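Data card: per-record layout.
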Amino acid sequence: MKRALVTGANRGIGLAIAKGLVEQGYDVLLGARDFAAGEKAANQIGATALHLDVANPDSIAKAVQTAGPIDVLVNNAGILGSGSILNDPEDFVDSMAVMVHGPYLLMHHLTPHMAAQDFGRIVNVSSGWGAFSDGVAGPAAYGVAKAALNALTVASARTLPNTVKVNAMCPGWVRTRMGGTGADRSAEEGADTAIWLATLGKDGPTGGFFRDRKPIDW
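The structure for this 218-residue chain is written out next.
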């Protein structure tokens, strides 16, 4: 049974991704900064809660040690600030920590096992707001962080063997606490492409950016 780790998975898109992977027979670790919320969510879907604050390198190191070997990593955790990017240095630091540095450290720790066993799947949950083709939109540092996550996807896919597939995806505008009630997609719809990328066969793509299972522009 393959083991998957989904970050920021106690609610929203992350929970939908974790649930989808459980339903496909994966042993899923549900990463959550709030461990009590993580345990509650994990119990509902048949996953295992893992205390993980992706903004904290010490928390990442401890979680990786607790988790053991991982075959599938979904970097889903995110934050959404407000206002102009140049007005809030703290938001910039936090956004880069959660959506770039945290995913980088998890990949740093977990990909050696994937490469050694000639199998791994990494899904970076990004956004169209992180695309240069869409003007790196979004509030505060969100778009810049997602653009950096996209760059990390491309660079790491080039570095890793083809058997370890690294892709980014945009879930669209999803009805979550971050997306708001006016969004046009359910969490399950937003999670679909991430689940597809997490379960790719050996001939699947790597180093790509996808929405609705189709390539989109960077």
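Known properties of this structure: The radius of gyration is 16 Å. The chain has a mean pLDDT of 94.

See the next section for split statistics.
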